[in-house]
Amino acid sequence: MTSVLDLASWPAVTQRLVLRRFAPDDVPEIFAYRSRPDVAEWITSTSVDVESLADRFGDGGTAVIVERDGQVIGDLLVTIKDAYGQREVATSAAATEAELGWTFDPAQHGQGLATEAVRELIRICFDELGVRRVLAACFTANEPSWRLMERLGMRREAHHVSDSLHRDRGWQDEYVYALLADEWR
């Protein structure tokens, strides 16, 4: 199966990290941090075992792995979407937005690694995938996530009130952040 991520050059190397496409043998390392309660609290769904996580990742068509010194320390998500466009111009709005997501091993927090990784992913989205806008969303209570978005220069575009259902916390507020390619450059 092909993925829009096939358009980018992999691996991408930063000062301390390697970003590369997902491989099925990454699942046990991903499960090690995603199964932690402090991580699972904020991700879309939890997996009870390696096999269920492998099923969720499937062929990994939208997943990017973050490695440091050969160790998987995080995973990123890139979903290319169509922007809204009136019928007469809808084809020009096709595949112009990328929604990003991320999950990192807490053992790696506080070192600027998430900022470095997501900054490179944004570059890939703009320079190699050709999108014009990236966006990301999180529960407002997930302060580390929205702080990361702000460090990357993303602007808070929306504060949705009680629109997102958290499995343990009930209805929660959500922040949406975005950045345009022109602002990035």
How do the helices and strands line up, and which of them pair or pack?
Elements: E1 12-13, E2 18-21, H1 27-34, H2 37-40, H3 50-57, E3 63-68, E4 71-81, E5 97-104, H4 113-128, E6 133-139, H5 143-151, E7 155-166, E8 170-180, H6 181-184
Parallel strand pairs: 5-6
Antiparallel strand pairs: 1-2, 2-3, 3-4, 4-5, 6-8, 7-8
GO molecular function: acyltransferase activity, transferring groups other than amino-acyl groups
Keywords: Transferase
InterPro entries: Acyl_CoA_acyltransferase, GNAT_dom, N-acetyltransferase
Account of the protein in words:
The protein is of the alpha+beta class. The protein has one domain: 3-Layer(aba) Sandwich (Aminopeptidase). It has 6 helices and 8 strands. It has an 8-stranded mixed beta sheet with strand order 1-2-3-4-5-6-8-7, sandwiched between helices. The longest helix is centred in the middle third of the chain and has 16 residues. The radius of gyration is 16 Å and the shape is globular. The mean pLDDT is 95.
Q: Can you tell me the CATH architecture?
A: 3-Layer(aba) Sandwich
CATH fold topology: Aminopeptidase
CATH superfamily: Gcn5-related N-acetyltransferase (GNAT)
Q: Describe the biggest sheet?
A: 8 strands, mixed
Outline the low-pLDDT stretches: none
* Total beta-strand segments: 8
User: Which CATH class?
Assistant: Alpha Beta
What general outline do the C-alpha atoms trace? globular
Query: Strand content of the residues, in percent?
Result: 25-35%
Distance N to C terminus:
32 Å
| Mean pLDDT score | 95
Structural class from helices and strands? alpha+beta
Q: Could you give the order of strands across the largest sheet?
A: 1-2-3-4-5-6-8-7
Task: List the helices and strands in order.
Answer: EEHHHEEEHEHEEH
What number of structural domains do the residues give? 1
Q: Report the radius of gyration as a whole number of Å.
A: 16 Å
Put simply, the count of helices is 6
Helical content, roughly?
Answer: 25-40%
Protein name: GNAT family N-acetyltransferase
Pfam families: Acetyltransf_3
InterPro entries: Acyl_CoA_acyltransferase, GNAT_dom, N-acetyltransferase
Keywords: Transferase
